[in-house]
Amino acid sequence: MSEAASGSADKSVQVKLVLLGEAAVGKSSVVLRFVSDEFQANKEPTIGAAFLTQKCRLEDRVLRYEIWDTAGQERFHSLAPMYYRNAQAAVVVYDVTKAASLEKAKTWVKELQRQANPNIVIALAGNKIDLVQPSLSGSGSSATESEDEADDATATPGEAAASDAETENPRQVPREEAQAYAQEAGLLFFETSAKTGEGIVEVFTEIAKNIPIESILASSRGAAGRPGTSGNRPGTQEAVNLDENQARGRDACNC
Amino acid sequence: MSTISAQLRNFKEPDRDEQSLLFFAIPPVHVKDDGAGQNNPEDSLHKMEINAMLSLDGAEDSYPGKLHLFPPYLAFASLDRKSVRFTIPLCTVRRVERPNARAGVYSLSILLWHGMKISVQLTSLRPAADQFCALLSMALKAELQAGKMKTVKPFSKTCYSENLILDTSPVADNEREDGSLIDGGRKVGEGNAPAFHGGLGLKFKFPGDPKKLREASKTKLWTTYFRVHGRHLTLLRYPQATRFVQVGLPNRLRGEMWETLSGSIYLRFTNPGRYKQILEENKGRTSTSTEDIEKDLHRSLPEYLAYQSEEGIGALRRVLQAFSYNNPETGYCQAMNILAAAILIYMSEEQAFWLLDVVCDRLLPGYYSPSMHGTLLDQRVFESLVTRCLPVIHEHFQEVDVQLSVASLPWFLSLYINSMPMIFAFRVVDCFFCMGPKVLFQVGLAILKINGEQLLQIQDDGQFIHLMRDYFNSLGDSAHPTSSDPRMRAITKFQELLLVSFREFAVITEETIFSERRRFRNEIIASIEAFSKRSAIRNLKTLERFNKEQVGFIYDALFKAVCVEPPPAPVPPPMSLLTTKDTIEERPETRIGPKTFKVFLSEIATWARDEKIVMNGFQQRVDREVADHELMDRLFWFWDYSYRGALTFQDLVTGLDGIIFSDLMDNIEWFFNLHDKNKDGFLTKDEVLTVSESLLFIFRFEIGDAYLGAVSRFMSNAFEYGDALLPRPEGSGEEDDATPQIESNQPYLSLATFRMVLLADEVLESFFETDLSASFRLEPVPLMELSPSNNGFLGGIWSNIATDTNVKLFHKLSDEVGKTIGRHQVIHRPSIGRYTSIEDTRPRESLLTPAMRHSSSESSLKATSGASSTEAQSRPSVSSAASAATSATLIATDAERHQFALSPTSPAGLDPLAQATNVVANAFLERTPFAIDDAGDDDDDDDDEEEEEPDDVLDEVDAFLDAHETVVTDEDGEVANG
């Protein structure tokens, strides 16, 4: 499935992407779902960082994601700069059932915005939504979302329902809260489930759309030209985001 | 998140003795002792080393080397430190004989508990040999008395090697070819079967194909070896043992050999039952570590059968938890789960626990610590070794900007266990425990070397990782698939790897690693500290009005304070509080207590440190000490916004913001609030006194009388205004002379009045307008030395002084010399330093008592003869005492007397006014040495004396010391005459 690493012959654009977030929020599972459309319940924790690649077609372009999946434990934090240096994109993952993980995500965002590549596109992803019932707050957006869900959900809705029945809703981070934060901080925002696959592909597709590809090409050609046209402010594109979700679906990533 | 640790700074290189103990894997005598170590006879036993020649009955060669006595252990290493070595607990020795051999040969025959006889010929001079024997016999006696000899046999029953050397093995029939048990271990521990320790592999099978691994023949080799060379506690490591390890340990023996080779067996032996005890004592305790452990339990070698069952998971949980309880500072680090899961396949929980301890503590120090400094350090060392041994690859990596660590960090951190296929990784681990951490470097270098050709083709980190992954997956393949020689074809890539590791990189020795670690340690520590500083600043909720540099400076001051005065370790909250989880889990954050705070403050506020300029004829330097005053405590509690009794970095930033940027009115209000304990908007009489004490503290080193006068005026005015503004008790007439009585702890002075009183004085006004804020300085405190050496006399010596303690010694020495030749001089440096001129600033005319101030020799006498006798109740008396303070002159110098004592806050019931005079008078008496005063002083030679003729000053000092009353009286006389 994964392409040979030496494939420098093709004209794909290389995008370095780094995954950050608290331990056990599902960073590696998100990548695994994206790269090989698999899910492992018990994934070994990442030591240092794992490296994977995945190609992704966007309109007439082929993006080659080089994904650095980092270790989440606090003490590995000091190693992170090694992985996010030169990254063009970052996915900061939190766990919707753990409020603390969003706090940690915020510190990652802060760090990225100050220390990483200034044009980095950051996506915030609330993972593990298979564990929570659809938000009861009844806002319009979440209603449409749950409709979309039906297309993607390959795995057992029954399981989620059962766990909901016996316990209160385990969701600790309301969608609205995280979304508001993402908007404010200028991040792309998603809720995902690596287990069901929901929302995963969209994360990477949206990032692809928001990346200043031209400047990457320019800089990879060796031109020292400034990559910094401040162009695409990701936060302003929320609307497009929702519209195009259905159209794109899974085929967007042609691996 | 923002934890500040000075631990890295306080690292000490092990001395020679400690290095030997580490080399021989001898556990520290008091291993995390639980109070059992008192009155230990071992403390009085002496260590000794001696040249010796080792030979063994039934074994071929003899080896020259050094025999070490480290009670209660006897250890030997051959001259090259690797061919032959042993570490034997003395309690396994049954007899030591001195055979009557040829003259001139001094040899010992050491008989061990299982009948093995070691011969050592002591080749040192006779007296040394005699002494060694004497010490050895003392050490042996101590062991005997402690009854340790009896513990050996029961312990040996836990070791599988004992089973192997029996002619008829009670368990052999129950074993599969791979060493696992046919009945799944159900019988273990039952009946008479010895309780050999063993791992999960016994039940869940060991990884790999036993035929291919040639388990049987390997086991046989070791069995023969054990018979001759001893086993577990008494294993002698001869060259063939190392070779046997390099071909891979047999499954069933692996666990025991790991603990024997790494030395963790000595820990298990000396701490029987400790593992269970730790678990028992901490049962049910939760912490961040236990939470992290839970997250990873199901993610540790999940493909191995045992870790899909509660049995394996439970064992893993217990070992990791026990380790984290026993090492709360390290706690739990991801990658430890993989290591623990791996070793548990081959060892019992208890064995694994101690092995983990040895790995984290001795073999890979700092690898799993919260800062992971050991990991980062070894990555740096590895990089430097690559630069040295494989320069071409290094250059290519530099060129294409590939970072070695992206691939190599996990190799080291998980001992290759999650990089290579398990069966190969375990063989690296075998070598690691046998030959030490250098193995990780040797294997790493070999990997790069073998893949050198392709590595020169890679262009980025990603390709590097891919290449490595493919290589690891092909380790089982033939290294020479096209060779015509079938024996060549049979060599796997893994065999090739080990060959290259130990042949071509034999130059990488233990010493190489240690010296490289020493070389880069400071660099790594500096970068870790810089990183924590950056993230601490980034994680502040607000920088307030500071810029980044300023906050950086505040951080530096905090860091320095933490180094000097480490805050107490955070106490885990009682369990009952842990259950309420309504708030977001708190991240660990460094909080400092009052003690650390004072050090911090002394870095920032000029008045929070005592600075003495010392001149002794050789050097002029500034001695700096942290001051201690109630004001500093007051500030601590004032800034404790969250009422925790401890301050965070944020608290300090916010606190400083409240004063540094303020103007006159803000500052007055700030100072008012600082002293208004109950925040009711009024100061009590006591608090007014405290204010003046605080001011006197701040002004304690100011030259001239301006500040002292200002404070005394402040006090008299404060009480005057305060009394005047008090509501008159009913029935008393307007002209009633009696001051209305009010308790000293009742609301007394409002902010408005306070402000008015302060603004009535020019000195205080300017202090609050600029000097108070300016006394907090966000700039590095200037270096201690003003000039190292004036006349070059000691210049040469000076440059050789490196350490802090040496510097202190040197200072002391030069002070002494300076004193004897009469050139020693100490001056306090003022904290504010504004009114240094002789002319005084006159107070503004008071609104209420216009002609209050005039000097009176009578009151001066009163004040100096001890204010306790002052019956000052009425206003005029107070003011005269105060003015006396401004008029008298004291010249005092004395190293012992420099401390600045203020009278304690008034005990309840004492009249505050009397107290006030007391304060001023005391402050007056305890004046800063060398303070020059103005009024009534006919300018003698004070100035010249101090600045230009230090010798004379000393005379004057002596004179003062001899009879300082006389001096005072003389001065008084002058004042009176003037």
UniProtKB/TrEMBL annotation, chain A:
**Which PROSITE patterns does its entry note?**
RAB (PS51419), RAS (PS51421), RHO (PS51420)
**GO terms, molecular function:** GTP binding; GTPase activity
UniProt keyword annotations, A-Z: Nucleotide-binding
Which InterPro entries does the entry link to?
P-loop_NTPase, Small_GTP-bd, Small_GTPase
Q: Indicate, by first and last residue, each region the UniProt record lists as having compositional bias (Polar residues).
A: 229-239
UniProt signal peptide: none
Write out the ranges of the annotated region (Disordered): 136-177, 220-255
Q: Where is the composition biased (Basic and acidic residues)?
A: 245-255
Q: What is the name of the protein in this document? A: GTP-binding protein ypt5
**Source organism:** Russula ochroleuca
UniProtKB/TrEMBL annotation, chain B:
- The record lists the organism as Russula ochroleuca
Q: Where is the Rab-GAP TBC domain?
A: 248-436
Alphabetically sorted, this entry's keywords are: Calcium
Amino acid composition bias (Polar residues), ranges on this chain: 857-871
Q: Which InterPro entries match?
A: EF-hand-dom_pair, EF_Hand_1_Ca_BS, EF_hand_dom, Rab-GAP-TBC_dom, Rab-GAP_TBC_sf, Rab_GAP_TBC_domain
The record, for PANTHER family, names: RAB GTPASE-ACTIVATING PROTEIN 1-LIKE (PTHR47219), TBC1 DOMAIN FAMILY MEMBER 2B (PTHR47219:SF20)
Q: Which SMART domains match?
A: TBC
Q: Return the protein name.
A: TBC-domain-containing protein
Sections of the chain in a coiled coil: none
**Composition bias, kind Low complexity: at what positions?**
872-881
Q: Where is this region: Disordered?
A: 832-881, 928-954
Q: Where is the composition biased (Acidic residues)?
A: 934-954
Domain EF-hand: where? 663-698
Question: GO molecular function of the protein, one example?
Answer: calcium ion binding
Q: Do you know which SUPFAM superfamilies this protein is assigned to? A: EF-hand (SSF47473), Ypt/Rab-GAP domain of gyp1p (SSF47923)
Q: Pfam families given for it?
A: RabGAP-TBC
